[in-house]
Amino acid sequence: MTPDGRRVSFQRVEDFSPPRWPGREHPRQIHLDVMVTDLDESEPLVLRLGCDVARGLAKPIGFRVYADPAGHPFCLVTN
């Protein structure tokens, strides 16, 4: 929790079926944007943590799409 009271909570889901992005047969449950100062510096970190680059997208300007190890999509975003 931050001093101003913001927090993010997670819970385990039994019989979880991970989302596939892009795709509709396993829809995503959340999409998280993470603000970073430099995409090229931040990408190796998320890859080392077990994330994958989302397929089907070139490297767009200002953001990149990844999937966490469970398959949830998220973006690294710059200002």
Describe this structure in words.
It contains 1 helix and 4 strands; from the N terminus they run βαβββ. It starts with 31 loop residues before the first strand and ends with a strand. A hairpin with a 5-residue loop joins β3 (63-67) and β4 (73-77). The longest helix has 10 residues, at 39-48. The protein has a domain at 32-77: Roll (2,3-Dihydroxybiphenyl 1,2-Dioxygenase, domain 1), CATH 3.10.180. The chain is globular. The chain has 79 residues and is α+β, with helices and mostly antiparallel strands. The chain is 13% helix and 20% strand. The protein has a 4-stranded mixed sheet with strand order 1-4-3-2, covered by helices on one side.
The profile of the biggest β sheet is:
4 strands, mixed
Give the C-level CATH assignment of the domain at 32-77. Alpha Beta
Strand order of the largest sheet: 1-4-3-2
**How large, in whole angstroms, is the Cα Rg?**
14 Å
CATH second-level architecture of the domain at 32-77: Roll
**CATH topology category name of the domain at 32-77:** 2,3-Dihydroxybiphenyl 1,2-Dioxygenase, domain 1
Give the SSE string: EHEEE
Quote the distance from N terminus to C terminus.
24 Å
Mean pLDDT: 80
**Low-confidence parts, pLDDT < 50 over ≥5 residues?**
none
| Strand-residue proportion | 15-25%
Count the DSSP helices: 1
Number of strands: 4
Task: Indicate the structural class.
Answer: alpha+beta
The backbone outline, from C-alpha atoms, is: globular
Helix fraction by DSSP (H/I, runs of at least 4): 10-25%
CATH 4th-level superfamily of the domain at 32-77: 2,3-Dihydroxybiphenyl 1,2-Dioxygenase, domain 1
